[in-house]
User: What shape does this take?
Amino acid sequence: MGLDNDRAVKTISEDEILGAERSEQAVQVPGDQPRKMICLPLEFVHGWLFQIKFTNTMSDETKQALIKYKRECYKIFFNHFFGNIRKQLEMNTAEIDLLKEINELIEKRGEIAENIKEKKKTLEKVREERLKNEPTLF
Assistant: This one.
């Protein structure tokens, strides 16, 4: 990538988070003696890559790849944080709409129950009249 290895190791080591996560591993290079390698857990590599500063020793291809990567990171951060807020607002709106509908149905249920009650009273009166055995002349 055209990075200064010593500077990269120093930057990682001095970082409060990455420094605590870094480890040193001995890696056997074919035909050579084992070499010390600084390693980060995979979940921290992307954050480290995002921190890389552009240098004059980087090739144009590396700079362009890093720019593309950093732009993608910015978009991911935005979508993650703003997307969660937007999703929460949409869910809150849906919940409020459903609560309004439920309240309207509850009101209608009360009106319907009252209407049923009145109709049953009227039905009882009709039945009472029908079942009366006393004939009336007038």
Summary: The longest helix spans residues 60-131. The longest strand covers residues 23-28. The mean pLDDT is 88.
